[in-house]
């Protein structure tokens, strides 16, 4: 599973990182990278009632206890 472009090809990870970094800088944030978004994404999914096991899998946690603790 991965992110795709409008043409259906895989998004280059370096391009995604560049978009995140440029957007963060424009918003006045420093030291923001792609992994900075993981906790925010996990929180949003949990608030949207996504099952905690699915969230743990999506963010790469080995167990739901790690997801729950964070």
Count of alpha and pi helical runs: 4
Overall structural domain count: 2
For the termini, the CA-CA separation is 24 Å
Which term fits the overall shape? globular
Radius of gyration: 14 Å
Strand content: under 5%
Let me know the largest β-sheet: none
Uncertain spans, ≥5 residues at pLDDT below 50? none
DSSP summary, beta strand count: 0
Overall average pLDDT: 88
Helix percent reads: 55-70%
Write a structural description.
InterPro entries: DNA_brk_join_enz (IPR011010), Integrase-like_cat_sf (IPR013762), Integrase_catalytic (IPR002104). Keywords: DNA recombination. The protein is built from four helices and no strands. The chain is mostly helical. It folds into two domains: 32 residues, no CATH class; 37 residues, no CATH class. The longest helix has 14 residues. The chain is globular.
Short description:
This protein has 70 residues and is mostly helical. The protein is built from four helices and no strands. It has two domains: 1-32, no CATH class; 34-70, no CATH class.
Task: Looking at this protein, list some descriptive labels.
70 residues, mainly alpha
Map the helices and strands:
Blueprint lengths: L12 H14 L10 H11 L4 H8 L4 H6 L1
Helix pairs in contact: 2-3
